[in-house]
Amino acid sequence: MAMILWAMGLSLLMQDCLCSIGQTDTGCMKWIQNGENVCCEACHPGNRLVKECGPKPRDLCTPCESRKFTVNPKDYRCYSCTQCVGAQVLVKECTAAADTKCGCKEGLTCGDDRCSFCVQTCGKGQEPAEKRSCRPCPGGTFNDQIHQMCKPWSTKCPNPEQKIVAKGDRFTDIKCANISLSTVILPKKPDHTDQAWSLVAIIFVITFIIITIAIIVVAVKILWKRKEEKETKKPQIRKTQIIRTPTDDPTTLIAVECSFHEAQQEQGSSSESLASKDSSNQLLA
Fold first, then answer.
1. Is the pLDDT of residue 143 over 60?
2. pLDDT value, residue 204
3. Are 83 and 100 spatial neighbours (Cβ–Cβ below 8 Å)?
4. β-pair partners for 119
5. CB–CB of 33/16 below 8 Å?
6. pTM (two decimals)
7. Do 99 and 111 meet the contact criterion of CB atoms below 8 Å apart?
C-alpha cells in the first residue's frame, strides 16, 4: 500500500514538473524538491517571487503588473518602468523583463550605463569634465575617439626598428617610422690631422701679420730718420750786406750817411765798454 501511494505521489510530481516546463511565461522556472514541497530557485523572466517553497511551482512566482519590470529571477518585487524625459529620447519600450531604454538628443551623450542623464558630447581632442561639459586634452595626452577620456602619449614605438619622427598632439599619439640602418648617419669622428693643420694655419697667419707689422714699423722709422738727416744737412743761406755805390741821388746819400753815423756810434760804444772794463781791472788790481 505504501508503495502504491509513493508511486502516485511521484506521478503527480512529474506532472507538475511537465506543466511547469510547458508554462514558460508564469510561475517558477527552476526549483528543487524539499520533502513534500518544492523550493523555487529562479522565476521566469518578468515574474516576481511570491513565496520560496510550496506544493506547486506555478504558485511560487507571479508576473509583474503593467508598467513594471524585474530583472532579478528571485526578487519579491517589481519596479516601475523608467520614463524618458528632458533631453532623453525613447529608444525601446519597457517590458516585464527589461526597463525602458532611453537615449539622448543629437549633440548629447548618455552620462552613465543606464542613460539616466545626458551630457555634452565631447569630440576628438577633448574629454568629459565636471558639470557635464568638455575640456581639451591636457599636455602630453590625446583622444582620437568621440566622448572618451584622454590617454597619455606613448613613450616609445611599438616596433623596435621604428623611431619617433613626430611628437603627438591632443588629437593623435606620437608618430613612428621605419628607419633602415643604411640611412642612419653616424656622427663624424674628429680628425686630429685636420685639427693639426688648422692650428698650423692659424699660427702661420698670426706670424705673417706680426712680421708685416714689424716691417712697416721699421720702414716708417727709416724714412723718418732719413727725413731728419736731410733737414740737418740742408745748407744755411747767409745774408750778405748789400753795398750800394754812391750816387748823386740825395736820398741815397742820406742813407749812406745815416749808416756811417750808426757804425761810428756802435764803435764808440764798444770802445767805452772796453775802457770801463780796463778801469775795473785796475781797481781790482
1. yes
2. 87
3. yes
4. 109
5. no
6. 0.45
7. no
What backbone phi and psi angles, to 5 degrees, belong to 104? -125, 155
Question: How confident is the model over 111-122, as a mean pLDDT?
Answer: 91
CB atoms within 10 A of CB 221: 10
In eight-state DSSP terms, residue 24 is -
Cell of 117: 542623464
- The contacts of residue 73 (CB under 8 Å, 6+ apart) are 29, 42, 43, 44, 45
**Which residues lie below 8 Å from residue 161, measured CB to CB, with a gap of 6+?**
178, 179
Tens digits of residue pLDDT in 192-233:
676 777 888 899 899 999 999 999 999 888 888 888 887 777
173 in Cβ contact with 161 (< 8 Å): no
A 10 A CB-CB count for 20 gives: 22
- The tally of CA atoms less than 13 A away on the side-chain side of residue 59 is 7
Cα–Cα distance for residue pair 236/227, rounded to 1 Å: 17
DSSP β-ladder status, 108-110 and 101-104: unpaired
C-alpha–C-alpha distance, residues 151 and 202, integer Å: 57
Mean pLDDT (the chain) is 78
d(CA 171, CA 173): 7
Please count the other Cβ atoms lying within 10 Å of the Cβ belonging to residue 66: 8
Helices (H), the chain: 2-22, 192-233, 250-284
